[in-house]
Design a protein that fits this description.
single chain, alpha/beta, Adenylosuccinate Synthetase, Chain A, domain 1, Adenylosuccinate Synthetase, subunit A, domain 2, Adenylosuccinate Synthetase, Chain A, domain 3, ten-stranded mixed beta sheet, 12 helices, about 30% helix, globular, binds guanosine-5'-diphosphate, binds 6-O-phosphoryl inosine monophosphate, binds magnesium ion
Length: about 425
């Protein structure tokens, strides 16, 4: 004990990277448990500006072991590239990285299939990141996936590929009319991956639990957010994994009793990348000004993020599913320039008033938000690190969000840097 789960509480990009980097200064392990390089986690600290996709955000803190858990899908080429980029920036992770032998690999054909499937969906496209995430998780559930341990034994991998590739190739050729992939081409790549990554592939489940049993501190690094969860998100406009608390347990094989804190990371407003319902979405100048001021463009794909007011219905739902012990609100400073701020406190669906989102995407599309309007604040919050310096109206706004989410807001972030953080309560000290 203890393990701190850091979970995206909206549609991803809430600022998890910043908070994980901040908390990892006092951790022994930082461990990713779901998703893959669809994630883009920004960290800005004294070492520079970084955008991490696969490598956990603990790499900037000395004596942290960085673990990629079994629930993650790993594109080996992306991992190699990211390690090289970090090394160039003077951050050597050769002694501090571990990849679960059970993690599934994103193969070149998964990346091809992701784009082919999206093109085929036409107007119904999900707006995926095109990184092969869905096809890799599909193979995992079909039991035709290739795992990290498989590249350690190339003889066995050949046998495995000869069994799984005919099915994949039938899809490539018969459905998409593209060239099939050969066993040899994959084996050639796998030999290179084995050379470069072989020494990092380990039985991490046991290691993480041993550290927890010895009273070590583990930060569980969530990717994406609850509203992109395969079960609890706005299906089918979701990712293919479980960024929720259940995913943290299965994606690392840690015992639930070790999880002492569950932190829900919320932006002070809402954003979304890709398609799907977004009840509080803004299509006016206010939305545009937030996008511009906050540079709301995807960390992984560069796409403009859709912007909307804070959605209290989805926030309460998020807390119900994940059971946060603390909420974290980021990007409060982005609202500094806005005179009148709306928050959604309920939905209207026909003649019904809802306090929980409907499960069906068609019904959610029809929900119209019920807004409350709060006054903006006259003094900028950007960079404030002491709660007592927060302007009164910003406190009123935070109190309203706390009430809507239904759990205490223990951290407020007022800028992208480590020190632009208000610790309302020191959650790392029991
Ligand atoms: P993640 O995927 O949840 O890690 O979030 P991203 O890194 O994709 O996007 C969050 C963006 O917000 C990044 O550009 C961060 O540098 C930035 N950020 C985080 N916290 C704050 C904050 O409190 N204020 C401002 N202005 N930017 C922040
Ligand atoms: P982080 O960890 C925001 C979105 C994509 C798309 C949907 C499915 O940085 O918060 P996928 O490629 O996963 O099959 O795409 O999920 N998406 C994210 N949106 N932040 C992320 O990660 C995301 N990861 C996936 O835009 O709508
Ligand atoms: Mg991101």
């Amino acid at each position: 004990m203890p393990a701190y789960a850091i979970l995206g509480a909206q549609w991803g990009d809430e600022g998890k990277g910043k908070i994980i980097d901040y908390l990892s200064q006092r951790a022994n392990i930082v461990a990713r448990f779901s998703g893959g390089n669809n994630a883009g986690h920004t960290v800005i600290n004294d070492m520079g500006d970084f955008s991490l996709h696969l490598v956990p955000c603990g790499v900037f803190s000395k004596s942290v072991t960085n673990v990629i858990g079994n629930g993650v899908v790993v594109d080996p080429d992306v991992l190699i590239e990211e390690m090289q980029a970090l090394e160039k920036a003077g951050i050597d992770i050769s002694q501090s990285l571990m990849v679960s032998e059970r993690a599934h690999l994103i193969m070149p054909y998964h990346v091809m299939l992701d784009t082919l499937a999206e093109n085929r969906r036409g107007k119904q496209a999900i707006g995926t990141t095109g990184k092969g995430i869905g096809p890799a998780y599909s193979d995992k559930t079909l039991r035709t996936g290739i795992r990290a341990a498989d590249i350690l034994d190339l003889e066995n991998l050949k046998v495995r590929l000869e069994s799984v590739l005919p099915y994949t190739n039938a899809i490539l050729e018969k459905i998409y009319a593209v060239e099939p992939v050969t066993t040899e081409s994959i084996l050639e790549k796998a030999a290179d991956w084995k050379n470069r990554l072989g020494s990092y592939i380990k039985p991490v489940g046991r290691y993480v639990n041993d550290v927890l049993d010895d009273d070590g501190t583990v930060v569980l690094e969530g990717a994406q957010g609850i509203l992109l969860d395969l079960d609890h998100g706005t299906y089918p406009f979701v990712t293919s994994s479980s960024p929720t608390i259940g995913g943290a347990i299965t994606g690392l094989a840690i015992q639930p009793r070790h999880i002492t804190s569950v932190l829900g990371i919320f932006k002070a407003y809402n954003t979304r990348v890709g398609s799907g319902p977004f009840p509080t979405e803004l299509f006016d100048d206010v939305g545009e000004s937030i996008r511009t001021v906050a540079r709301e463009f995807g960390t992984t794909t560069g796409r403009p993020r859709r912007i909307g007011w804070f959605d209290g219905v989805l926030a309460r739902y998020s807390n119900r599913v994940n059971g946060y012990t603390s909420a974290v609100v980021t990007r409060l400073d982005v609202l500094d320039h806005i005179d009148s701020i709306k928050v959604c406190v309920g939905y209207k669906l026909g003649t019904d008033i809802l306090d929980e989102p409907p499960g069906g995407v068609a019904a959610l599309e029809k929900c119209s938000p019920i807004y409350e309007t709060l006054e903006g604040w006259d003094i900028p919050t950007a960079g404030i690190s002491d709660l007592s310096n927060l302007p009164t109206n910003a406190r009123v706004y935070i109190d309203r969000l706390e009430n809507l989410i239904g759990c205490p807001i223990d951290i407020i972030s007022t800028g992208p840097h480590r020190d632009q953080t208000i610790m309302v309560k020191d959650i790392l000290t029991p």
